[in-house]
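Hey,
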Amino acid sequence: MKKTIVILACCALIAPLASAKTHKKGTTTEEAITVTGTVVKTTSEEGAVANYQPVRTLVVRGDRSTDPHKYVLEGPGHILNKRGELVQMPIQPGTRVHVFYVNTGDSRVIDHVVVD
């Protein structure tokens, strides 16, 4: 009887070792990569909205100039309030805005507009 208990105890101690998984250490390698691209400079201007004319174009009378500037709205064009919340209604003429845009050739493409 003692012999059976000793054998079962030995089996109970050895069984977990027999089924244990071995872990291999992974190796890491480092490679240098080169990222190429164009640096995009976002510019901003403040003024009052004149109108949307033609379609997908926002016309703003800037504070620093007498001529209105046209900004092209490509894509969703985020319009936000001062708290950073999306504005769902159209911008009315005369509304004070801060336009953030990117110069792309001869047009100014809107990144986002902040309504004052």
